[in-house]
Structure formats: C-alpha cells, structure tokens
Design goal:
Layout (H helix, E strand, L loop, with lengths): L7 E3 L1 E5 L2 E5 L6 E4 L11 E3 L10 H11 L12 H16 L3 E2 L5 E6 L2 E10 L9 E8 L4 E6 L2 E4 L2 H21 L5 E7 L7 H12 L3 E8 L13 E3 L7 H9 L4 E2 L16 H7 L3 E5 L21 H20 L11
Parallel strand pairs: 9-12, 9-13, 13-16, 14-15
Antiparallel strand pairs: 1-5, 2-3, 4-5, 6-8, 7-8, 8-12, 10-11, 14-16
Helix pairs in contact: 1-3, 3-7, 4-6, 5-7
C-alpha cells in the first residue's frame, strides 16, 4: 500500500430521513468538505496526506466473514470443533496485530453445564497516562446455533449476519487501532461465545471484569450489521436508546446522524437480549447494542441460509469505517461525554 501525497477523494453517504449525510473518518485529517450540490448529488470529502491503509478494506471484511461463516466451522456452536477454529482465527488476528491478552491468555473460559466455552479478550492500552485507566469495550458474539432445519439438504446454520458480521467489525477495529494507537483510553476487544445459550459468555466476562473493579466508561456490542436498512431509515440503531445519550454523542463524533432510534426495540426487548446487557447490569454504565438488522431487511435469522453470500459487504465496510471516528471520540474525549439518563 502507498501513502497518498496528492488529494484523495473519499465520501461515504447514508440515507437519514431522506437526506444524504456526509461521513468522514479521521476528522482531524479533513482539510475541507465540499457542500452537497443541487438534487442531493454525492459530495466529496477532500483529504491530504491520508494513508489509505488506515481504512478498513472491503476485501478484508469479505475474507474474514467468508471464513467465519464457512461450512468448515459447522455453525460455530459453543463447545464444538467449529467454534474452536473460530477462536483460533480470532486469536491469530490479535497476535498478528499486537493486540495482547488482557488475562494470562486470550481465553476467558467458563462452563455451561458440561460444555466449556471461551470468550476471546484482546487488550490495547490507552496512550494517555491518566485516561488509560478507563476502558471502552467493543464486543460481538462469535458463536451461533450450529445446525437448523434442513433446506435442500443443508443443515449448517452459518451465522453470517448473526454474528460473524459483528465479529469481523471488532477484528477490523482491533487492526485499525493497533496501527494508529489513536486511543487515549484503553480498549478491550471482546468476542463472546454462548450468546445463543442465553448470554452466558458475556455474563461471565462482565462479572469477572467487575470483580477486578475496572473503570468501565462505555461498552458497545455490535449485533448483526451485515445488511443495510431501507433507504428511508437511519443507518443503524442503538438498543436502550433512552437509557443514555450514546446515540447523540456518537453522531456528534461522526458528524452525521448515523445511529438512531428503533421504535420496536423496546417491544422486542432488544436491550436485554444481547451481550451489552450483562455489562449494563454489572457496571450500570452506558452499555448498548448497535445493529443494522431490524427484522424487516433479512429473512434468515437462525436459518441455514444466513450465509456470507446474502450479506452486503459494501454496506458493512462503510459502516465499519464510519464508526471509527465514533470510537475515537469515545476513547479520546477528555471528559466522559456519554452518560446514563436519570439512572
């Protein structure tokens, strides 16, 4: 890869309430932003001296997801040989990019009856002498259900959207921050197993970290981000929207309205159904799930056709890139901008 010496034109556009929003990662590198032309044409974000390799690439997203959602991993059921392959893959990504274990090894092990499960926990220390004692946790579950009702002889529930997509996002952010070291607070990159068994993995890790009395600032769990929402909908939504000012704050960091409110989230009880919830219970800190799956835009939930070829890799890559300034904002703000509402 080579550094761009001249001007590089990059733009991400998202439909938010019928209007295009201009998203720019790494705001500190922006020299000028062109305005939207008539008829809502795509505007250009002009940057100078930008290193392309700092951005997440579609080919890397696609390659990782195709492996994690391949038949070779047998649906990644907790305790299976397939999920062991996924765990090794995640560990190797961390090793290659100098993300160190938070515990003695990357594995945070636990039992669900006779089954042994492993969360994989990577650690990147913050670069500020004081703020490094505060933690931001980025998470996703890397397990799935193993098998499901056969379709044309296929019984492997590959779990591409659920939640290989979130897993790949966390891995790409680990790569990015390992290169840039652009985090004043420390980051834990956490991948959970036994989510499909009732949040057992995240529950175990949350209690273990609570026992260590870490100073948890925020936790975000990324759940099913492999498909885009309808054009008239905001790009993504946060569960438990009303519990904190996280959505508003992240949007401020990004510079556009990307994270919003999903009216059905409360009736579907999404806040309590994903791996953010054990951290909220343990720490009473802002801990939410972010998703682009809204039960209308993907029909293969817990289905054997939740395959890599059903996902939108361009959407995934744009979303992962777009979240980088949001994560940098969380990890670098002098004060704890994200706060619980009346709790």
């Amino acid at each position: 890869m080579k550094t761009v010496v001249c001007l590089l034109v990059l733009a991400f556009t998202f439909s938010c309430g019928g209007q295009k929003q201009i998203i720019a990662t790494n705001p500190d590198t922006i020299e000028k932003v062109a305005t939207v032309t008539e008829d809502d044409k795509i505007a250009n974000v002009v940057k100078e001296d930008f290193e392309i390799q700092s951005f997440v690439k579609l080919k890397d997203v696609k390659s990782s997801l195709e492996y994690l959602a391949s038949d070779a991993l047998e649906g990644r059921n907790t305790g299976s040989k397939g999920i062991e392959k996924a765990a090794v893959y995640i560990e190797n990504v961390f090793k290659e990019h100098h993300i160190i274990p938070y515990f003695k090894t990357y594995r945070d092990s636990f039992n669900v009856k006779k089954i042994i499960g492993y969360n994989i926990v990577g650690y990147l220390e913050g670069n500020d002498s004081k703020l490094k004692n505060e933690f931001v946790i980025l998470g996703a579950h890397y397990d799935h259900i193993g098998t499901a009702k056969a379709v044309n002889g296929d019984v492997i529930a590959n779990g591409a959207n659920d939640d290989a997509s979130g897993t790949v996002a966390v891995l790409e952010w680990a790569k990015y921050f390992s290169k840039t070291k652009s985090n004043k607070r420390s980051i834990l990159f956490t991948l959970y197993s036994a989510e499909e068994m009732g949040l057992k993995g995240s529950g175990h890790l949350a209690m273990r970290l609570k026992a260590e009395n870490i100073d948890l600032y925020t936790m975000i769990n990324f759940e099913m981000i492999g498909v885009p929402r309808a054009e008239n909908e905001i790009t993504a939504y946060v569960s438990g929207y009303e519990k904190s000012n996280m959505a508003k704050t992240l949007n401020n960091y990004i510079g556009a309205e990307v994270i919003g409110f999903f009216p059905k989230a409360k009736s579907f009880n999404l806040f309590m159904r994903s791996d953010n919830y054990p951290f909220y219970k343990a720490f009473k800190a802002p801990a939410h799930a972010i998703s682009t799956f809204d039960f209308t835009n993907f029909e293969y939930y817990h289905h054997v056709d939740d395959e890599a070829d059903k996902l939108d890799f361009e959407h995934m890559t744009k979303f992962i890139n777009t979240m980088i300034p949001a994560i940098e904002g969380m990890t670098n703000s002098i004060s704890k901008d994200i706060k619980m509402n009346n709790e």
